[in-house]
Every structure is written in structure tokens, then in C-alpha cells.
TrEMBL record:
Keywords: 2Fe-2S, Iron, Iron-sulfur, Metal-binding, Oxidoreductase
An annotated Gene Ontology molecular function: metal ion binding
InterPro entries xref list: 2Fe-2S-bd, 2Fe-2S-bd_dom_sf, 2Fe-2S_ferredoxin-like_sf, 2Fe-2S_ferredoxin-type, Beta-grasp_dom_sf, Diverse_Oxidoreductases
Pfam families cross-referenced by the UniProt entry: Fer2 (PF00111), Fer2_2 (PF01799)
Gene3D superfamilies assigned to the protein according to its UniProt record, in alphabetical order: 3.10.20.30, [2Fe-2S]-binding domain
Classification lineage: Bacteria, Bacillati, Bacillota, Clostridia, Lachnospirales
Keyword Zinc applies: no
PANTHER family per the UniProt record, alphabetical: OXIDOREDUCTASE WITH IRON-SULFUR SUBUNIT (PTHR44379:SF5)
The protein's name in its UniProt record: (2Fe-2S)-binding protein
Keyword Transmembrane helix: no
2Fe-2S ferredoxin-type domain location: 1-76
């Protein structure tokens, strides 16, 4: 079947197999930030934005993305670099494997709720698996980033 998907601002038209997962489609088009973790929709590593909302690309058929806009971390470099510096400052990136999915979900949270409290942050990011940390560094990084954004508005 033929699909048309806009990936990071680039329109891609391609003939695909009907069972092709979005994660595999994206990785075949150079989006290496999209990681394969659990393949059961439980870890968040494969998170991308579809029409501005976070989705788990290991659970979405590419056919369902036909006509939609997909953003990966590669397409959000400015936002990602700005936010990522705060995560790195807390030493929360460690191995880095979970970072792209974590950052995609955090960026989605900031778009949805620019001033979340600690409980809202924890709830929103609960589906992100990180085997290296206790999540406290990521939480400190998020809180520092949000404080910095608030100060920048003044």
C-alpha cells in the first residue's frame, strides 16, 4: 500500500507492507533517536509526536500514520538541545538509551502544560523506563528547566 507521511517537515511517499510498524519506517528514514525497547508499549523509548501528540511508534502501524505529521527528536533539535542541557547538568543522561523517548514525552508535557507541578510531571512521565537512574536526576532537570523558562519570561 502507498502512504504519505510528513516526517520532521519532509513529505515521504512510499509503498509499504501493510504490517510495517511506524518505528521501523522512521528508522529506515534516518530517525535513529526512535529506539526499540520493549516492543510491548511499556517503556516509552519509541515515543514520537503524531500531529503534536506523543504516540508509541512500536504500537502504530505506518498505514495509520498515512496523511499525518510525525516529529522525532531529530526534528525538534532546538527544543531538545535547550531542554537536554538541563538533564545532562543533573547527570541524568547516563547511558543515554532512554533519553530520546523521555525527552519526547517531556516536550509533549511542556506543550500541554507549560507549568506542571511535581505530581503532574511524575504522572505524565510514568511510562518511561530508565534502567540507569532513580529518576530523581531527570526530575531535578525538568524542575530546573521549568524554573529557567519561567525566569526567561520575566
Amino acid at each position: 500500500m502507498k502512504v504519505t507521511v510528513t516526517v520532521n517537515g519532509r513529505k515521504i511517499q512510499e509503498e509499504i507492507e501493510c504490517d510495517l510498524l511506524l518505528i521501523d519506517f522512521l528508522r529506515s528514514h534516518g530517525c535513529m533517536s526512535v529506539k526499540r525497547g520493549c516492543e510491548t508499549s511499556n517503556c516509552g523509548l519509541c515515543t514520537v509526536m503524531m500531529d503534536g501528540r506523543p504516540v508509541l511508534s512500536c504500537s502504530v502501524l505506518t498505514a495509520r500514520a498515512d496523511g499525518h505529521t510525525i516529529e522525532t527528536l531529530e526534528g525538534l533539535q532546538e527544543e531538545a538541545e535547550e531542554f537536554g542541557a538541563f538533564i545532562a547538568d543533573q547527570g541524568a543522561e547516563q547511558c543515554g538509551f532512554c533519553n530520546p523517548g523521555f525527552m519526547m514525552n517531556a516536550l509533549a508535557l511542556f506543550r500541554e502544560n507549560p507549568e506542571p507541578d511535581v505530581d503532574e510531571i511524575k504522572e505524565y512521565l510514568a511510562g518511561n523506563l530508565c534502567r540507569c537512574s532513580g529518576y530523581e536526576g531527570q526530575l531535578r532537570g525538568i524542575l530546573n528547566f521549568l524554573e529557567w523558562k519561567k525566569e526567561a519570561k520575566r
